Model the fold of this input.
Amino acid sequence: GEQLNSLIEKAISGNPSLLAMSERLIAQGEQATILGSKILPTAQADVTGSRSKRNLIGFNLPNGSTSFTSNSFTSGLNISWELDLWGKLADARDSAEKSFRASEMELQGAQISLAGQVAKGWYEVIEGSQQVLLAQKSAVSLAQNQNFVEERFRKGLANALDQKLAQTGTAHAKAKVLALQGQLDASKRRLNILLGKYPSVLLDQNLSVPADLTSLEVSQSSPSILLANRPDLLAAEQKAQASGLDLAVARKNFFPSLSLTGGPGSRSDEFENLLDNNFRTWGINGSLSQPLFNGGRLRAAHRQAKALQAAAWADYGSHALNAFVEVENVLAAEIRLAEQEDLMELAAQSAEDASKLSWERYQRGVEAIFNALENQRRAFDARSQVYLIRKQRIHNRIDLHLAQGQFPLSE
Done:
């Protein structure tokens, strides 16, 4: 329980892919803020100064000068505002917010998916450790049997065929240990990668084998209830709603737009007079713009937005159907795997009993060594299958948690 939960927390906080998604989500949130700001006025303070000289040829000035210089200083607060007459800017803002929420759901979905991969990797390492221990136990048992056969061979109680078969069984068992150890090391490397660490065969903690590998509970709720919180469905819904707002924006682009600009200020030939109320100025301008001809750009954009909206809702329907299939499949697989585990456990116990009896019969000289070795191999394979099916069952339960949009945390 606590081991798995701790690993999931480490993966979510240290996985590079999730960190990248988190940063992109922050950037998208800022983009939503940028689009939302367009609905508000903008204000900008300006202070300008200029000095100019003019030549006055043909003018008889009293002092006989033919040119003069002048200064001009202005200050002002320039305010610009596009009035949202039709709600176009509000729709664009709301679309950006829904796209941001969709990205939030996608990040949550990625976190849940990573948690599922970590949980599966955790049980993969546990099952791999069990397989290695089983193979080592089998190799030790076969080596002991080989020593017994060779002792009988030296005494003339066993033939060369028995000796060679015993040697073959031991060598094969030792090779199996090496192969399974390689698979276990690969599982550990994959788990470390998920944790955002170097792909080493070393883990920060030894993963203990729980008493019940199938401790994750299975909810028997209806699929529609199970899917209520799936992040991918919620994200698809937000995207579809955003596409509807984008279509509204494309339609409202055909309408006129009204903008206002202006603001208070001051003007003087002397800089120090800019703060004098006697030199105050103000102005306001209005602009009404109606699109007339743009080469079909607005109509094409409207058709594009309409098609994207239809595609977004179709994607939502596809996600929903796939989600229902996932839930139905894992619920059905739970029943089948539970029956398989019970049957395989019975088969393993019977095979182990048969192996013990077969070896005892060989020791009494009433059983061929080939049969004894074959029965021992069957016992090993049957017990190995129990571990494998148990892992498949817990993986299936993890898949059910993912299908429900839940973190596969154990109690």
